[in-house]
């Protein structure tokens, strides 16, 4: 949404009331509506172990159509969905492989990673959750009729991963016109990686993760459809500067901001005019968006 929203929170008998003024000139957001898109960060990661199929399903249960994930590569070349470069924080790798520190994803085979418990750290009810392959993840997102914001994680560690991801997307039907047009965005903190995806498949919508200087935005607009910054780094003026430029598909650049997990910061981001909000708590942010929409 490119409209500027002016919001105030008022407590009335214990309830939150949101007053909003929306100026004319709105444009369609990434989901085809004229409101902010809510993206479940690593799935609904506040409620289920991040980047697992369980987190995808929880987002679906909450009625969230967009999910975000992170893709890396194993020692033997398999694409897996995990955020950290190491396996230590979100799995029991230290117990299963105590002599393999620092437990880098790229130092383990797909078969070894498939044995890891990626759920117990989040709660006993998630014991046995696994790190999915990208193929498994794509299948689940498609089964749920969801949409995917795919992050290429640390591509400098995995030469050629962009082409490999594109091949997997193709094998799983995600490069069909209807899905590319409505259900897929590829992003990265690496400008080179985003540029590579755009060069290989210029039809795919792409996003750069970060907050480039306003003077540098025209260079990013040559290969990125979105500028996706941390919510702590932006202002209404910055969002306006991004929206003033057109990207490679001749449409105004969009802003998906991250990681917003509470109502107050969601309202603030909406007031800045962002197009999407990436969040661990998609229900909380969705409720804020609903409250500020007609």
Write the layout of secondary structure elements.
Blueprint: E1 5-12, E2 15-22, E3 37-40, H1 53-61, E4 66-73, E5 79-81, H2 93-96, H3 110-114, H4 134-143, E6 147-152, H5 161-171, H6 177-182, E7 184-188, H7 191-200, E8 205-209, H8 217-220, E9 226-228, H9 236-243, E10 256-257, H10 263-272, E11 276-279, H11 282-291
Provide the succession of SSEs.
EEEHEEHHHEHHEHEHEHEHEH
Average of the residue pLDDT scores: 91
Q: Count the beta strands.
A: 11
- Strand portion, in percent? 15-25%
Helix content: 25-40%
Q: Enumerate the spans where pLDDT stays under 50 for 5 or more consecutive residues.
A: 1-28
Distance between the termini: 13 Å
Global shape: globular
Given the helix and strand composition, which structural class is it?
alpha/beta
The biggest sheet, with number of strands, parallel, antiparallel or mixed sense and barrel status, is: 9 strands, mixed
